[in-house]
Design goal:
Layout lengths: L2 H40 L5 H46 L1
Helix pairs in contact: 1-2
Amino acid sequence: MKLLDVYNEMTKEAETEVVENDEMVVIAEYTTAADQLLAAEYGEDYNEQDVEKLASMLIEHDANEEIEQAKYAEWDAQGRVMARAFVDELNKEA
């Protein structure tokens, strides 16, 4: 194996570790938020499965919100393009 191949493989592994670490940080943040929400609502009357379920529901909710926001942003951009074309067309006729 060439030195460059070894370097590329090490770089790829390091990038994978960074992504996995970032994902773990996000999961930990959602888990902490879920634990705090459950503690505020139920005191000590919940278990680890409840925390995992609420954390996964929060992640899913936020992922869906991000998708919806991207759709609305795309629709807004398309609407602005169409409006600009309409105004330009009216200005040509005037």
